[in-house]
User: What shape does this take?
Amino acid sequence: MSEVKTPVATGGCQCGAVRYALYVAPENSHVCHCRMCQRATGGVFAALAGAPKAAFAWTKGEPAVFESSNLARRAYCRDCGTPLSFSYNMPEARFYVTIGSMDEPEAAPIIIQYGVESKIGWVKFCEDVPSETTGTDPKAAEFFAKMQSRQG
Ligand SMILES: [Zn+2]
Ligand SMILES: [Zn+2]
Assistant: This one.
């Protein structure tokens, strides 16, 4: 008997060509204020909700992928351009979808803010949510030290 997975959360791009499913409740929902996320989303921060890689699937269409650095990939719809996902190239790292592309963004309230060193001064937003500067813990610092940005 094969196990049929039931999506817990779903989403997709603006034109509907690409759809995805999370098979767990969204984990570690956060915003990232870093310059890479600002540029990648065209927004003033990225809002992302995660799932273990095995608990995520593209269910319709195939997104285009930009390797924003040697450590990470960002998927987007090649037809309408909606930024859809962010993931580090490590099997154990979570796969993140953009909260704005989810069908029910209310289901992914953010619990932390990353990249606050690049937070735009006039962004007054979820001020009560804890925040972290990129690469402050030693393990993260070691990881980010290897990063080669492909941002233009
Ligand atoms: Zn699209
Ligand atoms: Zn970021």
Q: What stands out?
A: Strands lie at 9-12, 19-22, 27-32, 46-51, 56-60, 64-69, 72-76, 83-88, 95-98, 112-114. The first strand starts at residue 9 and ends at 12.
